[in-house]
């Protein structure tokens, strides 16, 4: 009995602190030495995740339950790769601009892989690598960005509560209520506040 059971998410989601290099955004950008980030740490930032069976997304009872419990009534798919996405180069640049949304960003990777980067409480970048079977929820108001990895392909299910609103608000947008709520709930919540004043960013 002695072994601790492994979190099944580890096979499809990994997170680590990024280096400061301005090399190709599609590279892993590990620090040296590597500094991985736990699921508990992501939870503290409001980032939720699941491992699901991407081969059965049409009939998966676990996905159905998540959608019902969280009110995700809208669903579509987005394929990001040079062959499938119109204005690919421009879109990829836009996705990699640091921004926030006033609603959750919900993505379920059903094929391929990619990186979601989020800011921690001290403004450091955490890179979250999602692969087939990973579902991730970024909370409203968190500053983040997205890029493909070096495989240049992801197919993701996009979920939303009600009618979808994909509007990105590029940083700085600290005056938005969604940002202020995020800071109150996640940034200022632990450890007596952030090292960097969010309002000054």
The percent range for helix content is: 10-25%
Distance between the termini: 49 Å
Beta-strand residue fraction: 25-35%
* Helix/sheet category: alpha+beta
Mean pLDDT: 93
Query: Which series of helices and strands comes N to C?
Result: EHEHEHEEEEEEEH
Task: Output the number of helix runs.
Answer: 4
The total of beta strands comes to 10
Show unreliable segments: 192-201
Cα radius of gyration in angstroms = 17 Å
Biggest sheet overview: 8 strands, antiparallel
Shape: globular
Features:
nickel; disordered C terminus; iron ion binding; globular; dioxygenase; alpha+beta; EC 1.13.11.54; eight-stranded antiparallel beta sheet; 201 residues; two-stranded antiparallel sheet
Task: Give an account of the 3D structure.
By secondary structure, the chain is an alpha+beta fold. Strands 1, 2, 3, 5, 6, 7, 8 and 9 form an eight-stranded antiparallel β-sheet that branches. A two-stranded antiparallel ribbon has the order 4-10. A hairpin with a 5-residue loop joins strand 5 and strand 6. It is globular and about 40 Å long. The termini are far apart. The C terminus is likely disordered.
């Amino acid at each position: 009995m002695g072994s601790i059971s492994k979190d099944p998410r580890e096979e499809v989601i990994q997170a680590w602190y990024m280096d400061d290099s301005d090399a190709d955004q599609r590279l892993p950008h590990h620090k040296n030495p590597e500094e991985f980030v736990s699921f508990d740490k992501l939870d503290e930032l409001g980032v939720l995740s699941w491992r699901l069976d991407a081969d059965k997304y049409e009939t998966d009872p676990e996905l159905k339950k998540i959608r019902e419990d969280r009110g995700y009534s809208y669903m579509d798919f987005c394929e990001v790769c040079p062959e499938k996405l119109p204005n690919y180069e421009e879109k990829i640049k836009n996705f990699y601009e640091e921004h926030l949304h006033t609603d959750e960003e919900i993505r379920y990777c059903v094929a391929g892989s990619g990186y979601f980067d989020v800011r921690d409480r001290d403004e450091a970048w955490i890179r979250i690598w999602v692969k087939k079977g990973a579902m991730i929820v970024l909370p409203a108001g968190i500053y983040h960005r997205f890029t493909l990895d070096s495989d240049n392909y992801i197919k993701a299910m996009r979920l939303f509560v009600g009618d979808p609103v994909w509007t990105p608000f590029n940083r700085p947008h600290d005056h938005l209520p969604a940002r202020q709520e995020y800071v109150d709930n996640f940034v200022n919540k632990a450890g007596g506040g952030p090292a960097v004043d969010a309002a000054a960013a």
